[in-house]
Specification:
about 450 residues; alpha/beta; 6-stranded parallel beta sheet; 5-stranded mixed β-barrel; 19 strands; binds S-adenosyl-L-homocysteine; binds iron/sulfur cluster; binds FE3-S4 cluster
Length: about 450
């Protein structure tokens, strides 16, 4: 008997968000119900991330702090999965002995049987860590989705790129594409289940299909999923080197595809891009942006940028600033380089002192804010088609939603209407105010 309640804590990227919906589905299927804090849970599951050191440390802090529950007479079962589970396996259990189950990125299906076993004999369990070649895309039970109207749909797992700073290929394995027909069939099921928006997922989503017979391409997945009649279709994450003209054209000609692309550039200097093993130049990246904007003039563009990569000089960093100015991103996720064991760059000379990286990071963040503000300001007094997601976390009198350009919008719930009824609907919204990281609007 596993008890009655569960709590899932998720770190990291959208892959983990999807996995947490699968874990929730498996636990609900085992008869458990979700609760809002670990203190009330009989089963506590962590889905972890190790892409940067900070994420690693947060997990150790949080799991360690749960010891108080075990010593306070409760006996919740604690399971740790995700990328740290995959990377550290048994080691994790040795370091934090009150963890009951360790599992990896490819064996969610083992979670409930292992928890059952611990519940029976109180002996900690470590799942047999698998490789992505054993990845099982099939849905054993329906996911317990965070929003009923939105679903994640993985089309591939793993990554073959081995960017020199990145641990992801070590913890998610080699790239494996999901069979084409299975993707389309799942999209159909999701649509029938009331889903309005699907986000296709892959570490390198737009290189889909190279390992499959007939080499189906990403653009064909977009077309086929859109043809199920789903109203909105997004995808993440795209690699600039794999962004084909065919994909750009399909995005432009398929109304369901969101007017949004997350296209990580990582750096603005060619020498650093080479050292990062990104396989494109600044000029090639800028050319892709130009093609995108020619085909989809109102496209929202976001990116990821790393500062303080080993050897980065002030001049090289300034190339990143000038690229940000040149592109005019709507948003950028900025990170201070964090050396990760086993990656190539961790062994590079000239690691940048933290104070230097931090100072650059702050200059970059300020520039990103200016860019984001300017892009949003241009939307004032326009009308956007907004999918309403629910009450705002900070102010329940406001509803949040996303435009077709995936911009966050705050909308006052109209008086006299039941706000809950509007959740999951797509409605026209007049943009009445703009900030750097969100828009304000009113229902038309
Ligand atoms: N597959 C995706 C996501 C990778 S992780 C992609 O290729 O874009 C998300 C972001 O974390 C990366 O884009 C990168 O900007 C950042 N990142 C990865 N490793 C990092 C490291 N060692 N230090 C700092 N940032 C890192
Ligand atoms: Fe990491 Fe590069 Fe793969 Fe993205 S493409 S997951 S940054 S190795
Ligand atoms: Fe983190 Fe793993 Fe995603 S390391 S970014 S959760 S693939």
């Amino acid at each position: 008997m596993l008890g009655e309640t569960y709590y899932v804590k998720t770190f990291g990227c959208q892959m983990n968000k999807y996995d947490s919906e699968r874990v929730a589905g498996l636990l609900e299927n085992a008869g458990l119900q979700a609760v809002g804090t670990p203190d009330d849970a009989d089963v506590i599951v962590f889905l972890t991330c190790c892409v940067r050191e900070g994420a690693d440390e947060r997990l150790y802090g949080q799991v360690a702090s749960l010891k108080r529950l075990k010593t306070a007479g409760k006996t919740p079962l604690i399971a740790v999965g995700g990328c740290i589970g995959q990377r550290d396996g048994e080691e994790l259990q040795k370091r934090i002995p009150h963890i009951d189950v360790v599992f990896g990125t490819h064996n969610l299906n083992d979670l409930v049987p292992l928890l059952d076993q611990v519940a029976e004999d109180r002996t900690p369990q470590v799942a047999r860590l698998q490789d992505s070649s054993e990845a099982d895309f099939k849905r054993l039970v329906p996911e317990q989705r965070e929003h009923p109207f939105h679903a994640w749909l993985p089309i591939s797992v793993g990554c073959n790129n081995f960017c020199s700073y990145c641990i992801v290929p070590y913890v998610r394995g080699r790239e494996v594409s999901r069979p084409f027909d299975e993707i389309v069939e799942t999209a159909r099921e999701l649509k029938a289940d009331g889903v309005r928006e699907i986000t296709l997922l892959g570490q390198n989503v737009n290189s889909y299909g190279r390992d499959l017979y007939g080499e189906p391409r990403f653009a064909q997945v977009l077309e086929a999923v859109a043809s199920t009649g789903i109203s909105r279709l997004g995808f993440a994450t795209s690699h600039p080197k794999d962004l084909s003209d065919e994909t750009i054209n399909t995005m432009a000609s398929t109304p369901a595809v969101l007017r949004y692309l997350h296209l990580p550039v990582q750096h603005g200097n060619n020498e650093i891009l080479r050292a990062m093993r990104r396989v494109y130049t600044r000029e090639q990246y800028l050319e892709r942006v130009e093609s995108l904007r020619a085909a989809i003039p109102d496209i929202t563009l976001s990116t990821d940028i790393i500062v303080g990569f080993p050897g980065e000089t002030e001049e090289q960093f300034e190339d990143t600033l000038s690229l940000v100015r040149q592109v005019g991103f709507d948003q950028a996720f900025t990170f201070i380089y964090s050396p990760r064991e086993a990656t190539l760059a961790a062994g590079f000379p000239d690691q940048i002192p933290h104070e230097v990286a931090l100072e650059r990071f702050e200059r970059l963040a300020a520039l990103v804010q200016v860019s984001a503000e300017a892009r949003n300001a241009a939307l004032l007094d326009t009308t956007a088609c907004v999918l309403l997601e629910g009450p705002s976390k900070r102010n329940p009198a406001l509803m949040t939603g996303r435009t077709r350009g995936y911009k966050l919008v705050h909308v006052p719930a109209p008086e006299g209407t039941d706000a809950a009824k509007l959740v999951g609907q797509e409605l026209p919204v007049r943009i009445t105010g703009t900030q750097a990281f969100y828009l304000q609007g009113v229902l038309e």
